């Protein structure tokens, strides 16, 4: 079969053996596979990523000298079951799968390991236990975006955004756009999106952002109606004194119970929930400096370089800093069904489709934020490209 191999940062279309499904595994025909930002990073930074992964307990990440088939965002049709499968669906059933595969050497990340070739190919092997049938006749294009939408859904859940809170998304690349979509699908009333790119700002509006900001001319921190937010530390101190003076004017009022009640009904000061979706050095510190007091910052963007923050800035503002990765099987299924049920539409993210021969140029095109957000691969297309918009 044909597949795109990545070796020493070079991409090439090659003939490779058809993979054989092992115990509990399924072979599927790939209908669509998304090109992820992680693939762009892995192409040139895989050795650094592998070293970091090894420090966290996974030693199977791809290395630059290996022949790797990238691709972990895919939708396909069942071709063949391996031994020991439950064979839950007929051959030909359209499915998606979490990109993890159990081999004799352990569990590996599909599309990011030599032991688990990915979806930049005509066929790919998946784990039956991690496979889900695509419901409601959902198109292969939309189903292929289940994986990035699940990443965004996990980030939104970890952000614990109340419907009346403001969410601010810094960076409107594919993952930022997915976060915006999932925030609106979860009922958040005010979503602010910030990006320097006019094209990405337009896509953010299509994904449902209520306020879209060019940070070169307007601050995302002052672009929305603020509720229960404080301008600075002095405001917090003033509020504390004013509150105590008012409460103590009421005879025999146990003021500490009033504080507890205010906490219970959400009447205490709070900041927005900020989603960092850029992944470049310096951005986290910029957010810590600009965000209001008592904000919660969820780091979704993957910075592949050493970075520097000022912890005292976050301490003085009592900012909650969270880092997120991936999703669990329930969140993956939830994302699929949110797409299939029409609760979230990933279509604005899809800006092009290419055949295997067009993958290298697609990587180049994705480096320009004014051209593309998400390009899908159609392995059955023998042409260079099927559509780019």
From TrEMBL:
<feature type="domain" description="Alcohol dehydrogenase-like N-terminal">
    <location>
        <begin position="23"/>
        <end position="135"/>
    </location>
</feature>
<keyword id="KW-0862">Zinc</keyword>
<dbReference type="InterPro" id="IPR013149">
    <property type="entry name" value="ADH-like_C"/>
</dbReference>
<dbReference type="InterPro" id="IPR013154">
    <property type="entry name" value="ADH-like_N"/>
</dbReference>
<dbReference type="InterPro" id="IPR036291">
    <property type="entry name" value="NAD(P)-bd_dom_sf"/>
</dbReference>
<dbReference type="InterPro" id="IPR002328">
    <property type="entry name" value="ADH_Zn_CS"/>
</dbReference>
<dbReference type="Pfam" id="PF00107">
    <property type="entry name" value="ADH_zinc_N"/>
</dbReference>
<protein>
    <submittedName>
        <fullName>Zinc-binding dehydrogenase</fullName>
    </submittedName>
</protein>
<feature type="domain" description="Alcohol dehydrogenase-like C-terminal">
    <location>
        <begin position="174"/>
        <end position="218"/>
    </location>
</feature>
<keyword id="KW-0479">Metal-binding</keyword>
<keyword id="KW-0560">Oxidoreductase</keyword>
<comment type="similarity">
    <text>Belongs to the zinc-containing alcohol dehydrogenase family.</text>
</comment>
<dbReference type="InterPro" id="IPR011032">
    <property type="entry name" value="GroES-like_sf"/>
</dbReference>
<dbReference type="Pfam" id="PF08240">
    <property type="entry name" value="ADH_N"/>
</dbReference>
């Amino acid at each position: 079969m044909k597949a795109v191999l990545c070796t020493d940062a070079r991409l090439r279309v090659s003939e490779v053996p058809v993979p054989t499904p092992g115990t509990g595994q399924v072979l599927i025909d790939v209908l669509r596979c998304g090109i992820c930002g992680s693939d762009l990073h892995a192409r040139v930074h895989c050795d650094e990523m592998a070293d970091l992964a090894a420090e966290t307990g996974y030693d199977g990440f791809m290395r630059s000298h290996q022949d790797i088939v990238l691709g972990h965002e895919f939708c396909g049709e069942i071709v063949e079951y391996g031994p020991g499968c439950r064979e839950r669906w007929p051959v030909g059933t359209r499915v998606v799968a979490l990109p993890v595969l159990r081999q004799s050497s352990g569990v590996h990340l599909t599309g990011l390991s030599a032991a688990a070739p990915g979806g930049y190919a005509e066929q790919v092997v998946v784990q039956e236990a991690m496979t889900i049938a695509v419901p409601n006749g959902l198109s292969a294009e939309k189903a292929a975006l289940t994986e990035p939408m699940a990443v965004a859904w996990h980030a939104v859940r970890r952000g614990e955004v109340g419907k009346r809170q403001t969410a601010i998304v810094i960076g409107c690349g594919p993952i930022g756009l997915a976060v915006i979509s999932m925030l609106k699908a979860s009922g958040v009333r005010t979503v602010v999106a910030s990006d320097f790119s006019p094209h990405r700002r337009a896509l953010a509006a299509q994904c449902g952002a209520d306020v879209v900001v060019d940070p070169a001319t307007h601050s995302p921190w002052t672009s929305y109606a603020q509720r229960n937010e404080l301008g600075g530390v002095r405001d917090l101190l003033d509020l504390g004194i004013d509150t105590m003076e008012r409460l103590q004017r009421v005879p025999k009022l146990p003021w500490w119970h009033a504080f507890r009640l205010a906490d219970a009904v959400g009447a205490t000061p709070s900041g927005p929930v900020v989603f960092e979706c850029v992944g470049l050095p310096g951005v986290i510190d910029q957010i810590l400096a600009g965000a209001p007091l008592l904000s919660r910052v969820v780091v979704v963007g993957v910075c592949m370089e050493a970075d520097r923050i000022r912890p005292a800035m976050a301490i003085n503002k009592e900012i909650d800093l969270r880092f997120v990765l991936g999703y669990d099987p329930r969140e993956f299924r939830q994302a699929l069904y949110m797409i299939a049920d029409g609760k979230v539409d990933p279509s604005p993210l899809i800006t092009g489709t290419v055949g295997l021969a067009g993958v290298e140029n697609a990587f180049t095109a994705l480096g320009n934020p004014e051209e593309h957000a998400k390009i899908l691969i159609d392995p059955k297309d023998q042409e260079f490209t099927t559509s780019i918009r």
